[in-house]
Structures are given as C-alpha cells and as structure tokens.
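User: Please run a holo structure prediction.
Assistant: Happy to. Please share the sequence and the ligand.
User: Here you go; the ligand is glutathione.
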Amino acid sequence: MMKFYDCTPAPSPRRTRIFMAEKGIEVENIQVDLGNREQLGDAYKKINPRCTVPTLVLEDGTTLTENLAMSVYLEEMYPEPPLMGRNPQEKAAVMEWNARCEAEGMLAVAEAFRNSAKGFVDRATTGPNNYAQIPELAERGRARASAFLPVLNERLEGREFIATNEFTMADITGLIFADFAGWIKLPLDDMPNVKRWHEAVSSRPSASA
Ligand SMILES: N[C@@H](CCC(=O)N[C@@H](CS)C(=O)NCC(=O)O)C(=O)O
C-alpha cells in the first residue's frame, strides 16, 4: 500500500486527500505534527528532505513531494473518474486553472498568512531553512489573494466548475484556496459565483476527506 504523509488541518495535503477520495484510492495515512515541527526533525527529513506535507511514497519506494506529481501518477494509475480532463483541450484547461488557483490563490494566501501569523515567526516559508517574516509581504499577499477572487468569480459566471464542465483538480485547488482565504479573513460575500460554486464543491463527500 502507498504511504501518505499528511497533516489533517494543513491545506496542501487536503488537496491530495480530496483527489484520492474522488477516485476511491486507499493509502496508509501517517500524520506529521506540523504544530510541533515534526516536519523539521531528522526522522521526517529522511523521508522528505523538503520538510513538507504531503509526501506520497509509492509501492516501489518512489517518493513524491509535489501535489501535481502525485496527481499525475494517481490519474494514470486510477483513471476513473478523470480529474485532469478528458481530451487535450480539457487537460490544458485543468492545468491552466490549477496553476492559477495555486499561484495566484493559494500561494498569495500563504504569503499573507505565513508573514503575519504569530506561530510562524521565522517560518515565513516552508522547508528546512528559516526565513524571517516580512510584514510588507503579508500585505502584498493579501492584496494578491483579494485580486484573484474577482478573477475566479468572473470565470465561474455561467459555469458550474472552474476548468471544464465537470469537477476536476482545478476545483480542488480552487476549494483549498477559498477555504484558506478564510484563514486571513477574506470574505467571499461579494463574489456570488464563487459562493455558489464553493457551496456546491464543499458539499461533495470528498470535501471532508
Ligand atoms: N509543493 C508542496 C507544498 C506543500 C506545502 O506547502 N505544505 C505545507 C502545509 S500546507 C507544509 O508542509 N508546511 C510545513 C511548514 O510549515 O514547515 C505541495 O503542494 O505538494
């Protein structure tokens, strides 16, 4: 069985958990206590020197530390239901919107959160090296995340899902962004399309994985 190194409250491993839940994939779940900095200890560094979750260890021992890498592998191994598009156009749209939800959404919130939260002093980035918080980056991250919400709202005008006409990985990354935005108290109130879509994708059984 594959081993999945997880931390339930953290946004990034939730992406993979939802992806696996949609496909009914079972893994051995191993919790890493980020609150106690277990990710920076020697034991976890041997598993993932990048000190991040999620980590997926495949049955042949290959270790993956990127959500996208895990998704590509799992989509190939467990094609149904497809979460990364059914044809070239759809696959491209999923990659386009997954990347945007990650870079313009999730990473902007992370920039705001990690550069301001009390528990993240000197942990402004993930990884083995410590970096100081920069208050201006917190402000910038908040502005960038706020700017992405109307982009998503416009994209969802007249659409049920972000990338294609069915639920895909882009919706997973979008959902993680929208929930993570709550950590920096960014309201979705003025974004009717985002709100409607957020309610719909949040009510899928996989959302509580
Ligand atoms: N590239 C990774 C990023 C993972 C990531 O940023 N994980 C965070 C949790 S959401 C983490 O491991 N944080 C450890 C830390 O804060 O030291 C992925 O998405 O797969």
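The domain at 88-208 is CATH 1.20.1050.10 (Glutathione S-transferase Yfyf (Class Pi); Chain A, domain 2).
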